[in-house]
Amino acid sequence: MTMKTKTGIPESRWKDRDYREFKFEVRAASIGEGEDSQQALYAEGYAVTFNQPTVLFEYDGIEYKEQIDDRAFSEADMSDVIFNYNHSGKVMARTRNNTLELTVDSKGLFVRARLDGTDEGQKIYKEIKGGYIDRMSFSFSTKEAPYDSENHMRTVRKVKKLYDVSAVDIPAYDTTSISARSAFEMEIEKVKEEAAAAERRKRLVLQTYL
């Protein structure tokens, strides 16, 4: 039996992927005039910004951070990326049919999705334009992501594959924190082991002098 997250996504779907959410610029834009402007509806914004450390997880007072290198997408597979809502549900735009454009620039990964092709897309466009949805997320797998243990910083240097970009809810999408923790599980275990070892040494010293 396949278990599901609180959001209804099967665990098997996200267990080998990372999900990251950013509170960056997301806006709705229309192209054309008159009747045509009602047909061409676009949502655009940055799903990723480069070299901006973000706290993904905190454990025992330690903040575990991540940043995306500005060359992270240079070798990424972005051949068929979709735009949807909360990383689930019907596809609203995709690169394969040219309704989703992805541009890597000096700031980050810029997304431009044409949303008038589906009823769901038209609905999400109105919610973005109305300010009800103002966050974007992306799901990906990594090829290279070294960890700086001194600064508790993970740097994603190479993205292996980009799966989707998604308009997301507030509060933060559940699997964001889940996948963030999984990225630092080994480091958290080290912290636990070091704390336990320190406690054992303390007890040994007390026993020696008692």
Count, helices: 5
Percent strand equals 35-45%
Order of helices and strands: HEEHEEEEEEEHEEEEHH
Terminal CA distance reads 55 Å
Question: How many domains make up the coordinates?
Answer: 1
Low-confidence stretches: 1-14, 171-178
Instruction: Let me know the number of strands.
Output: 13
Radius of gyration, in Å, reads 21 Å
Share of helix, binned: 25-40%
Q: What value does the average pLDDT take?
A: 79
Gross morphology: elongated
Structural class: alpha+beta
Instruction: Let me know the largest β-sheet.
Output: 5 strands, mixed
How are the strands of the largest sheet arranged? 1-10-13-6-7
Explain what the structure shows.
The N and C termini lie far apart (55 Å). The protein has one domain. 26% of the residues lie in helices and 39% in strands. It is elongated, with a radius of gyration of 21 Å. Mean pLDDT is 79; it is low at 1-14 and 171-178. The strands form 3 sheets. A 5-stranded mixed sheet has the order 1-10-13-6-7. Strands 2-3-9-8 form a 4-stranded antiparallel sheet. A 4-stranded mixed sheet has the order 4-5-12-11, with helices on one face. The chain has 5 helices and 13 strands. The protein is α+β, with helices and mostly antiparallel strands.
